[in-house]
């Protein structure tokens, strides 16, 4: 069984915790939060006062709060470049907060702008996809327009309680439209890993446990090798009846350790232990980086495209001394706190995120050490799995 060690420099029998996580356990949360805020302010004040040059890693630190909604993260992670639909997405995502603040005038203008942009750019939006997808994007745009009608009515009626659900329904169609714009897989996996299964797109897996079910959305656009490994094992029934061998109800769940002395997957075709490399994509780079941690590359503090920011983040476990030794074991991140934000923790850039739990998060709250995965089944996207 592999230990999930959050500090790669340490080698402990039990999984180590980063300093902030330890502080969360040792002190009341309100105290710790205040201490963390004060510490950040002191550091920032120091750099501003003495005028020191900021190191590259400091320059890469996130400048605003990380997005914690897995659905938003996954939409943003799609490899598309369409300003119109992205503007619609961003405006819709901001509506629940606007409604909570009762900014009805702004919301009225926003929904009118969205309707105008979709109407005036409809021909352009349809023309921007592959010919075989024009019928699909036309249908998705039509569904989006229909979903905007009750949302506009809720805004005009100042129905604050309905805006969130209705905007999320519209965003579901926005995500479908955005997916229609992906014309081809955006990069080639390095030759060293080309013989491994690859997920060239998205897929969904239903994880059924003795405490309930959850849906994991896998992102092969940003971690094709790790997502491909996981999906291939799911199709083989590898995870069926495996226990959660490590668990902290406020931090993470880990499973994927088969019975016996082997910690991972033995490929029956070769008789060899099959591993996958560390695989993390940085924003504005077309392909992921492979084989090295952010720390090794001098990128500590960089916010990856798939960060550890959402409750239910799914990532590959690897040995403490080998970031390229992941195989079958994975963990589900349960910790959501401003004290260890994305880009400022010991996980981002040191472990490969390959998906998020997008449904059934209440099941994760119930799972404990010793509970079991009864089955893992592919429910969509199986056609995106490539097995060389």
H-E string = HHHHHHHHHEEEHEEEEEEEEEEHEE
| Mean pLDDT over all positions | 85
Summarize the biggest pleated sheet.
9 strands, antiparallel
- The second-level CATH architecture of the largest domain is Beta Barrel
CATH topology of the largest domain: Cyclophilin
What is the general shape? Answer: globular
Question: How many distinct beta strands?
Answer: 15
Gyration radius over CA = 22 Å
Please render the helix and strand layout as text.
Blueprint: H1 19-26, H2 29-50, H3 56-59, H4 70-76, H5 83-100, H6 104-120, H7 122-127, H8 134-156, H9 160-180, E1 198-199, E2 202-209, E3 212-219, H10 224-235, E4 242-243, E5 246-248, E6 252-255, E7 266-267, E8 272-273, E9 279-280, E10 289-290, E11 313-316, E12 330-333, E13 353-359, H11 361-366, E14 372-380, E15 385-386
Antiparallel strand pairs: 1-15, 2-3, 2-14, 3-13, 4-14, 5-6, 6-12, 7-8, 9-10, 11-12, 11-13
Helix pairs in contact: 5-6, 5-9, 6-8, 8-9
Structure description:
By secondary structure, the chain is α+β, with helices and mostly antiparallel strands. It folds into two domains: 80-180, Four Helix Bundle (Hemerythrin (Met), subunit A) (Up-down Bundle), CATH 1.20.120.290; 191-386, Cyclophilin-like (Cyclophilin). Helices cover 37% and strands 16% of the residues. The chain has eleven helices and 15 strands. The chain has helices spanning 19-26, 29-50, 56-59, 70-76, 83-100, 104-120, 122-127, 134-156, 160-180, 224-235, 361-366; strands at residues 198-199, 202-209, 212-219, 242-243, 246-248, 252-255, 266-267, 272-273, 279-280, 289-290, 313-316, 330-333, 353-359, 372-380, 385-386. It is globular, with a radius of gyration of 22 Å.
């Amino acid at each position: 069984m592999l230990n999930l060690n959050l500090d790669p420099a340490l080698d402990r029998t039990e999984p180590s915790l980063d300093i902030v996580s330890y502080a969360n356990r040792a002190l009341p949360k309100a105290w710790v939060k205040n201490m963390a805020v004060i510490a950040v302010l002191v550091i920032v004040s120091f750099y501003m006062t003495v005028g020191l040059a900021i190191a590259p890693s400091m320059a890469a630190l996130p400048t605003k709060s990380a997005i914690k909604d897995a659905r938003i993260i996954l939409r943003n992670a799609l490899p598309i470049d369409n300003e119109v639909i992205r503007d619609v997405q961003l405006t819709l995502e901001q509506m629940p907060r606007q409604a909570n603040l009762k900014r009805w005038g702004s919301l009225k203008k926003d929904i009118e702008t969205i309707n105008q942009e979709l109407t005036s750019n409809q021909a352009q939006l349809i023309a921007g996809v592959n010919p075989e997808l024009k019928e699909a994007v036309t249908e998705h745009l039509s569904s989006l327009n229909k979903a905007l009608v009750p949302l506009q009515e809720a805004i005009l009626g100042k129905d604050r309680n309905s805006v969130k659900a209705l905007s999320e329904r519209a965003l579901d169609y926005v995500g479908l439209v955005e997916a229609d714009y992906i014309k081809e897989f955006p990069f080639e996996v390095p030759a060293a890993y080309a013989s491994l299964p690859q997920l060239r797109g998205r897929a969904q897996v239903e994880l059924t446990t003795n405490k309930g079910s959850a849906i994991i959305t896998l992102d092969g656009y940003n971690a094709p090798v790790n997502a491909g490994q996981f999906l291939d094992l799911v199709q083989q029934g590898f995870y069926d009846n495996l226990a959660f061998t490590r668990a902290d109800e406020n931090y993470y769940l880990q499973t994927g350790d088969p019975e016996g002395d082997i910690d991972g997957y033995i490929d029956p075709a070769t008789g060899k232990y099959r591993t996958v490399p560390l695989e993390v994509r940085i924003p504005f780079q077309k392909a992921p980086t492979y084989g090295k941690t952010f720390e090794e590359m001098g990128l500590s503090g960089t916010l990856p495209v798939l960060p550890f920011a959402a409750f239910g983040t799914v990532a590959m476990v690897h040995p403490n001394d080998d970031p390229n030794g992941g195989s079958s074991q994975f963990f589900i991140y349960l910790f959501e706190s401003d004290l260890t934000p994305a880009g400022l923790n010991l996980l981002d850039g040191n472990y490969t995120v390959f998906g998020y739990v997008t449904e059934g998060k209440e099941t994760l709250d119930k799972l404990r050490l010793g509970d079991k995965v009864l089955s893992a089944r592919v429910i969509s996207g199986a056609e995106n799995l490539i097995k060389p």
